[in-house]
Amino acid sequence: MVVPTTLTPVVAKLPKDFLWGFATAAFQIEGSTDVDGRGKSIWDDFSRQPGKTLDGGNGDVATNSYELWKEDIALLKAYGVKSYRFSIAWARIIPLGGRNDPVNPKGIEYYSKFIDALLAAGIIPFVTLYHWDLPQALHDRYGGWLNREIVEDYTNYAKVCFRAFGGRVKHWLTMNEPWCVSILGYGRGVFAPGRSSDRNRSPEGDSSTEPWIVGHNVILAHAYAVKAYREEFKSTQRGIIGITLNGDWALPYDDSPANVEAAQHALDVAIGWYADPIYLGHYPEFMQEMLGERLPAFTTEELAVVKGSSDFYGMNTYTTNLCKAGGDDEFQGRVEYTFTRPDGTQLGTQAHCAWLQTYPQGFRALLNYLYKRYRLPIYVTENGFAVKNENSLTIEQAIQDHDRVEYFRGMTAAAVAAIVEDGVDIRAYFPWSLLDNFEWADGYDTRFGVTYVDYATQKRYPKESAKFLAKFFRENIANDLPKYREPPNLQSVLNYVRSAFLRLRGSSGTALVGTAKA
Ligand code: PNW
Questions:
Q1: Residue of 331, 357, 407, 432 to mutate, ligand 1, most atoms within 8 A of C-beta
Q2: Which atom of ligand 1 is closest in space to residue 319's alpha carbon?
Q3: Pairing relation of β-strands 313-316 and 426-429?
Q4: 477 vs 487: CA distance, rounded Å
Q5: Per-residue pLDDT tens for 125-152?
Q6: I need a surface site. Which of 29, 70, 335, 391 has the fewest CB within 10 A?
């Protein structure tokens, strides 16, 4: 605990129990893919195939966190986090994946000691059950997510985890970013298992049907696992459970009605596809229109399980897109994305990946949109930035990650504004990622870490962004220390009254659709 030596005015803006920490995923950091009885995941062989990752990188070593887990925890402690979001590898727990396949005691033991060590360090485990590493055996057995069988196998796996870890884990995420699972894995074919209609990419697959079937099964698997948690574990374990969805704010390219409508269509497919059934009990109308018979339907019984199956809104977000009506890309709601405004200027600072620019105003607008539409507390479970060409810099240069610091400066300010001025109920913020790591199809070329990893030595070097975030949360989360508070000024009293009023009314009051000029 840092005790201020001088009496500087400090006004904590975030509540005492606000969770912050960093996020990672098993396949991106663990390595050690063939030890202690782990089964293969669909990413193992996929990432080894030539041409599937930018630099030919695979997950065999990654950041070697399976072995260096104590170092990772020491790093988290040094950063002063309250929580750590990590994922469990299904194929370490049940190597062949299925409900009649054996559980691997070594897998249970590994995560068990990891969770104990986190708790001993005063860090709350925030656990993702599925971050894209489907057991290969289930893909081979029946097509993985394409087959409804997966619902029972996933539910069984989740129950094994609740039983083994639920006494200590009180924060569960069922799935990470189902849009990416379906669209990138079975539509565009750029992520494992790499299925697509594009025969240059994949010998098998149907991009017009498979993503929607996969998405449907992911929703059902999530929902039945939550049902099992609530019926069999919740009363004794007393945790919370939900899903985390990716989704970026959509701004109309200009004021034309077609582009205003396009922005809503983009949100419908990126977010509403999953969020509407889970929180509101139906697929978005636009998706039903766009896909017709290709969009699977829920039975009445299933819908009763799906609706209300998340205790909170889990939000991963990185950027904002300017939306133009047109094109035939169903995965974006037949909307074209750009970062170039009508006047030729860029929306924000360009990241290393083409799909990412900095735009904090969009983060604030999206928080307002989600809170107003789904009316649940929001847990921001991912948000981050990859500095352009960071991989070609020296370590000394790379740790001076100015653009990432500016990204987080903007995003944290936007989150605080959403909480304090707009009355949005945000409970957590997990920057992506604790470490540079295996960035899926980008291999090791793209670095998202607040900690630099020298892959030749596996040494970790904190970047400026880690220091910025550690300081930001140290100063802005209320603690028990007596604080000198600034006397309230008129504006903050007015903001407080306004946000209390909006909270009561259950509305954010902020304009939901801005324009590119905003
Ligand atoms: C998320 N896109 O993935 C994942 O949850 C992380 O595992 C990943 O490392 C992180 O964001 C950074 O990419 C995404 O193309 C992958 O829009 C691709 C996209 C978005 C998120």
A1: 432
A2: 17
A3: unpaired
A4: 18
A5: 999 999 999 999 999 999 999 999 999 9
A6: 70
pLDDT in tens, 490-516: 666 677 667 667 666 654 434 333 344
CA of 191 to the centre of ligand 1 (A): 11
Atom of ligand 1 nearest to the CA of 177: 5
Tokens of 296: 């699977």
> CB of 439 closer than 6 A to ligand 1?
yes
Q: Are 381 and 23 in contact (CB under 8 A)?
A: yes
Q: What is the pLDDT of residues 158-172, one digit of tens each?
A: 999 999 999 999 999
The answer to whether residue 406 is catalytic is no
Q: 30, 210, 330, 382: which one is catalytic?
A: 382
Q: Report domain extents, the chain.
A: 19-477
> Residue 216: which H helix or E strand, with range?
helix 210-228
DSSP per-residue string spanning 375-389: -S-EEEEE-----TT
pTM (whole model) above 0.85:
yes
The CATH label, of 3.40.50.1820, 3.40.50.300, 3.20.20.80, 2.30.30.40, for the domain at 19-477 is 3.20.20.80
